[in-house]
Amino acid sequence: MPKYSLLGGCSRRLTTTHRIALAGAGTLSAAALALAAVPGGGHTTTAEPASAGRQVAYGSERLHGVKGGVTGVTGVTGVTGVKGSVTDQMADVGVKLEAIEARKKAAAEAARKAAAAKKAAAEAAARKRAAAQKAAAEAAAKKRAEAARRAGQAANRSAQRPRMRTVAAQSYANNLDGWIRHALDIMKERRIPGSYHGLYRNIMRESSGNPRAINNWDINAINGVPSKGLLQVIPPTFAAYHVPGTSWDIYDPVANITAAANYAAHRYGSIDNVYSAY
């Protein structure tokens, strides 16, 4: 039995090639017919009957030729090239997709980091503002407390120290007029009644305005307590009606006048009511 059947083997081989090849199927069929028409030596033969053995051999030779032609046309060059091109394109597309995806991931990561940095900066700024506000509030509270403390200290000092009345220093002439005016200011402060005219009138009658005058001849002198000074006051009366803040010297003009006016106020109502020895 022959190794290959012309129709069966060729048909199976051509069908497999046709499935693989994407282009050139018509060209392969034409080449197969040409090889079937031309013998292996390249000579054209007439259509004469051949024996079965020769047909088998010839068929085998033709089959080998067809196989070689088909292989040369399709097997190595066409299909391999198409597959390689498609594979390369798919690889390029995959690389591009991976690059795009990587860029997307990088952009997303950069955006995330930027958002995190912005949030951190905002939080730091908020903490800084809060700290500044707290420090300002504490400083204001401390300042108010210090002001209150100082005010309290000032109030305590004011309460502890009596308020003194400021009095302008008054100067008086060292003469009868000055002595009377000085005595009148003291009498006014001590609420002792009397006038300039009443004092002057009695002084002129008793001593003629001499602060060192002394009576050594009346009954008081006989009793050992002579009258002395501008208004001729005996020592016991001077001591009893002495006005605080004046001198204890009975010959001091102001002290003598105020003590006599104080005695007259108690006995006569005022020095103005005295017109003779009193």
From TrEMBL:
> Any idea where the Transglycosylase SLT domain is?
203-277
Basic and acidic residues compositional bias: what residue ranges?
140-149
Output the superkingdom of the source species: Bacteria
Q: Does the keyword Transferase apply?
A: no
Q: Which Pfam families match?
A: SLT
Sorted UniProt keywords: Signal
The record ties this protein, via SUPFAM superfamilies, to: Lysozyme-like
- The UniProt regions of compositional bias labelled Low complexity, in chain numbering, are 150-161
The record lists the membrane-crossing segments as: none
**Which positions make up the signal peptide?**
1-36
- Check the record and name the InterPro entries matching this protein: Lysozyme-like_dom_sf, Transglycosylase_SLT_dom_1
Q: Which parts of the sequence are annotated with region: Disordered?
A: 135-165
UniProt name for this protein:
Transglycosylase SLT domain-containing protein
Organism of origin: Streptomyces echinoruber
Give the source lineage, highest ranks first.
Bacteria, Bacillati, Actinomycetota, Actinomycetes, Kitasatosporales
